[in-house]
Input
Amino acid sequence: MSSVNIARALKAIKRSIWVYHLNSGSCNACDIEILDALTPYFDVERFGIKLVGSPRHADLILLTGPVTRESLPKVVRAIKAMPRPRLILALGSCGVGGGIWWDTYSTIGGFKKLEDILRENGVEVDRVVYVPGCPVRPEAIIYGILLLLGVVEQKVKKVEVVASES
Amino acid sequence: MLHSIAIAILQLALAPVYDGVERKVRAAIHTRIGPPVLQTWYDLIKLFSKEVVIPVGGGWYTLVTVLEMLTLVTASILLVHVSTVGLAQATIFEAVIFIVLTGIATTLAIMRAVSQNNVFSVLGGFREFSLVLSAEPFLAVSLLLLVSGVEAAASRAIAALILLIAAYVVSGRVPYDIAEAEPELASGVNIELAGPLLGVATVSAVLKKFISATLTVLVFVLLGGLSGLTSLTAVALLTPLTWITHTVVSTLLGRSRVDLAVRFLYTTLFILSSMLLVSYGLGV
Ligand code: SF4
Output
């Protein structure tokens, strides 16, 4: 049982979001784009975004890579170490769905599979946003964070259409 | 005393705003927009609304973190009280109490860091320890000398200089932020803290900056011979200005290697203290 009021905490996080960079076996191109997004050029501090050095301090994990088998236990531990609410930004084609390694023997294939493993281990994740791209663009990373916080609207939405009989 | 406590509470509520101004000024130097001035308040509100995670060590650990903050609050109130009477009228007793309080706060910070089952936290604790050893004894000696009302001009000037440098170190800014220094070193005294406990540690960090700025102002007020209401007003107005000066200095200074920063500090303060000893002995 969690000791936290998630809705209230999410409201507070909107003005102050601390991010932790977690590489789960990426080719490093997405990581370079993350570093780019955190440079003074993009000035993410104006949105209250700050890079921290420990998952214990973090509100959001910037996850890159397709989650290799080797990194899986460490990734689960790092996400578990975050105090709730836990937010995750799955970055790049690899982070979103494994990319070109989605069915290889040495990776589990991106966040979707990781989500199931986290659930099995009782680690709750409160919000996830997927940011595709290979590598992901810095503007897309910042947009993804703002989308996660509800500062901007989602541009593309899934619409289900049912064909009529006639 | 009640008067002092009321002013101190007002000043302490403003301290996170000064910290926000610091971030804004740093951003301006970087030609960025920077966060809103209330950002530190937003950070604190966020931290206190997050999940409570008690690190290994349990309630004792929580108690130490909270006690550290309370000790720093008391030290801040004492400093504000001293500024209502002026440092010239402050007694040796008040100076000793202040030194003891800051000493206790640092000891508590080191204790909670080294008692963690996390080697990175222990490393941070040792870095804090080396920093304390190379700054706080010099701070104590120069403060006691100034408060004792030594008349000799050279001794007063050297003691004031030592106090100014040591006060900057107490603020925990670059390059003397090595106890935490996240995210560059990915290890530090706060590494295991999360949510509200990290919030308490953040308040402590802001209080250290407040103490540092107020102490620096008090030295100038003393050298200027101010006391009473003039002194109180001067301290209240000059504290944010000193805070900004510290910010500019820290933004312009680069990060130094963890061992070099401490060695350079120790050597500088040791040479200055030797000069102080000589000038005090000669009575100049
Ligand atoms: S998405 Fe592309 S750039 Fe990013 S880690 Fe995977 S392969 Fe590299």
